[in-house]
Amino acid sequence: MLDLSRRDVIVGAALAAAFGINSRLAIVAPALAQPAPGPGMGFHRYTVGSVDVTALYDGIWRKPHDPAFIRNASIEDTKAALAAAGMTTDYVPIPLTVVVLKVGDNLIMIDSGSGVGQWQSTAVSLPANMKAAGIDPAAIGTILISHFHPDHIFGLMERGANAPIYPNAELVVSAPEYRWWTEPGRVEKLPDERKPLGARIQAVFPTWKNFTLVDGEKEVAAGVRLVNAPGHTPGHSAFLVSSGNEQLMISNDTAYVPALLAPHPEWQGTYDQDGPLAAETRRKLIDRVIADRIAICGAHFPFPGAGTFSKDGSGYAFTPVQA
Length: 323
Ligand SMILES: [Zn+2]
Prior knowledge:
Blueprint: H1 4-10, H2 13-18, E1 26-27, E2 43-48, E3 51-63, H3 75-84, E4 92-103, E5 106-110, H4 126-132, E6 140-145, H5 150-153, E7 170-174, H6 175-182, H7 186-189, H8 195-204, E8 211-214, E9 219-221, E10 224-228, E11 237-243, E12 246-250, H9 258-261, H10 275-292, E13 295-297, E14 306-312, E15 315-322
Parallel strand pairs: 5-6, 6-7, 7-8, 12-13
Antiparallel strand pairs: 1-15, 2-3, 3-4, 4-5, 9-10, 10-11, 11-12, 13-14, 14-15
Zinc ion (ZN) is lined by residues 149, 151-152, 253, 256, 299-300.
């Protein structure tokens, strides 16, 4: 059982400021942090030092319960974790948020969203919310890609034709991720449900000339460093934004649904390709943001997708921020 009252005590604007989150954001208790779409959920801005962060809501997958979803937990375990976080137990809520950084004059997007219904029919909102936030897609100069799952890359490609939506942006991805998915013979080795994804990647990405492949943990844009976070996929990456004395860890899918994986970091999802490595990476990354007292955001965290972690027994407690 989570101790909501203790977490209520630690929330506050001063703490938010200490963690590098714009103090104008209010931190709400998890019970109020429902990720279902609602008014005002289109986009949200906060700052990390001098970097403007815009969180853009793409939509939500209301994932039906499935005994295979978490390899080492039952549907009942999953429902109990959702209920403890104050969320619906009717389905697993998997919202999707895309982050755009403004560093100086440069616009840097992290992942591309899910391509207007190409992943789920209920995730179609990124273009409209980008427009509402005043961001011109043609002005995005760099796209940092965490991994090659559909909800993170289908927004790079037009439906059907696969034409590039951002032909002039530099596409940055870890070399291990790119090489794994594009290796000759890969499609045949994938499980059946992943074969269409692998085939699409192999048909499209090698024909694009705007990929930059990164080996190791390098600075990939001004003040933004790639952090190796393998397990979810072989080359899955997080990105650490630093400005002044503030930092934000963009964790992508390292701890995708905190309601489940904060209290149970050892759970291995069916989408964690290497389950034990994904769990090890998750603990390492969360321990790091706790030790460094920095904010973290994730693609599937409750909108606007940012928050902080603290230790809680053998797991963690996640405190989201919400507009
Ligand atoms: Zn994802």
